């Protein structure tokens, strides 16, 4: 029976199979291609199995779409940096439509992308003022939340997530949001995953649409109020004082998207750094010593320049990139050759940082946490937690700032005792690498914290 389905696939997709004949991969079957092989497990784990079996460039079919997985740094550089216009960005458009709207995140090609990127609030010169003001606010949020939990058994990932949500509300809107807004946001993110799992994305649940309506209404109401005063540094205030080239609709979509494309990712970056520095006490102690020496409540510039903290956050992003990977698709009309194969129309290429970051021929002892790897610049195409080239993550600087500030505040104020057996095994939820069992631990106040 299987061989009948294999023959039918060959009849249906003979040309694409032939074009990719030199690239190894599993045998596809009629209608689903290799889609069934990807069901039921985590995509990043399956992809790593495939890479180990078929090599650094392998092919598979998602239903009828020819697909490649590459773990070659030279491909990463070529696709993202050297020749980005041969490709379109293949975000799951249907899955992200109700949440991402018109945001730059979803722009398929340079024509649509360039003006949106140039107008994005994170690309404006004034953004450093917003970042500067955010640092002390994050510290307050961490202290307020965690001081109340000292001695209790907690999931530190959840706590960091809540703090990050509040921090994002402060930088975007200038004020925190009520608890139900967090639930609305979670529900919207969940829907991206739900829709992504369907061949034809749709959202039957009226509760989802209701939550989405409530979320958007809240953002719209805040935008309508404009600047919160001459000295307010939140994005809405800054944009309304400085002016913007964005349409009203785009302002709304971009600001909403800062949360939806970035909040959880940033919380994950802070969470993996904190976990790793707690588990690896030698490196944790180095960071603490450096923080103590930096004096009371270092400002943004001081914090960003701390070398041990910097290398640790980078290394956490290598081992646990919050976004496991992303996709490009051959632009219609482009003739692209990759390792001798002429790619058939609609071929998509999966660029999976999770795999390249853990490749044993690129990184020695790849699963070991060793921030000192970053004493040297990584070679081109070997490290891309935030993408590379023109379309690298617009939220990168904010994320690094949030991850460093949260990690620094926790390490300098608290001792973290992880529960016995606590690990950072991840599951993939709509491309995000979430710690399966959270970060279970207990906090005590540090004996000699700074600033007390
Ligand atoms: C750990 C945190 C984050 C990670 C790992 C991450 C990862 C990425 C990656 C890999 C890309 C490139 C995708 C591609 O080339 O197809 C990207 C793009 C993007 N990210 Fe992030 N991101 C993070 C945080 C954020 C934040 C906080 C925001 C808030 C605005 C954000 C918004 C965006 C947008 C709008 C794009 C598209 C940029 C463009 O196309 O010009 N991300 N991100």
List the helices and strands and how they pair.
Layout: H1 2-19, H2 43-54, E1 57-62, E2 65-70, H3 73-82, E3 87-89, H4 93-100, H5 110-119, H6 127-147, E4 153-155, H7 156-173, H8 179-196, H9 206-225, H10 235-242, H11 248-279, H12 281-293, H13 300-305, H14 307-319, E5 326-330, E6 337-338, E7 341-342, E8 348-351, H15 353-356, H16 396-413, E9 414-418, E10 426-429, E11 432-435, E12 440-445
Parallel strand pairs: 2-8
Antiparallel strand pairs: 1-2, 3-5, 4-12, 5-8, 6-7, 9-12, 10-11
Helix pairs in contact: 4-8, 6-7, 6-16, 7-11, 8-9, 9-11, 11-12, 11-14, 11-16, 12-14
Characterise the protein shown here:
It contains 16 helices and twelve strands. With 452 residues, it is of the alpha+beta class. It has a single domain, classed as Cytochrome P450 (Cytochrome p450). The strands form four sheets. Strands 1-2-8-5-3 form a five-stranded mixed beta sheet. The chain has a three-stranded antiparallel beta sheet with strand order 4-12-9. Helix 7 runs antiparallel to helix 11 and helix 11 crosses helix 12. The longest helix is centred in the middle third of the chain and has 32 residues. The structure holds protoporphyrin IX containing FE. Protoporphyrin IX containing FE binds next to helix 5, helix 11 and helix 16.
